[in-house]
Amino acid sequence: MLDKTDKSPLSGIIADRGEEMKKIVPDSNTSKYERINIIAQLIRNKPHSISQLSEKLGVSTKTIQRDLYDVLTDYGAVRRGRMWSMDDKDAKDNLTQEERIVLNVLDNISKSMGANFYSKAHILLDQITQQLNHPILTNINNEKLNEDDFINFELIEKSIKQKQEIACKYNDYEFKVKPLKLAMFDGFWYLLLLDSNKKDTFKKFHLRSISDIKILDDRFEISSEIENRIQNANSAWFDLVKPKKARLLLAPQITKYFERKPYAKQSITGKDNDGSVEVEIEYTNIMEIKPLIYYYIPFIKVLGPKELADTIKDEIGEYFNEIDI
User: Fold this and answer.
1) What global pTM score does this model have?
2) Would you call 193 helix, strand, or coil by DSSP?
3) What would the pLDDT profile of 234-250 be if each residue is shown by its tens digit?
4) What is the CATH code of the structural domain delimited by 244-322?
């Protein structure tokens, strides 16, 4: 939950459910997610009409109607005459134990995204169930998101869905790009894109280094081949070129890790009597596969392609030549 000293539009609403509802100061920067959270808390404390909610939040009645009918009715919002209230019991009773576990996991993972993200995620999840008691521990090291990041998320998500180009700054340089996907690799958020000024060269921009985003009128289309290749991205080193296949021999000690969490485009091609397993993993850049190999040495062996095996052999040889053993 947010600290009671937080001066955001949510302060005084979610800090303590036992407190009387404080007056909300309209904020033009209030995001859609915060607004929905505020509406949920208002109607949970006491019934409100659409016009009352509109006046308190400083938005149109049509916006309030969309939030109620399109979102909050799924989480227990009910209408009785002109007044709306939150019936948490109905919302909770529709959940299975399996669904509660999923919500607990999501709520716990959201902590790793920073206090700003967690405050939003926790309230939305808490609207579904009041039984998030955290019996599950996750320890994921992700970069933290702030309010500006949420604004950029919304703009980029909109442009991706509508297939509209955007203008932006990246590391103080101006770009016009075709946004393809928002992706997280190794705890960092990236925008996968085509650089319109460089003959649609494929690039990855660190999301938090992007600024001054403007959605343009120019529209674009993406081929199914590009869409399919993007779905198989393993890391920030991913590229759109035709993938190669790494053939790897896994010792019995590490086989279970590849079976529990298969890599994108991983396939088991053989098993030996001693428990070792041969797998194939597609990669588009050698840096996609090298960290994986180095992580599991000496329990992994490169069978092919030869250029990959030679690179690993040469780099390990150079390393041992440089250190004093």
Assistant:
1) 0.60
2) strand
3) 789 999 998 999 999 99
4) 3.30.70
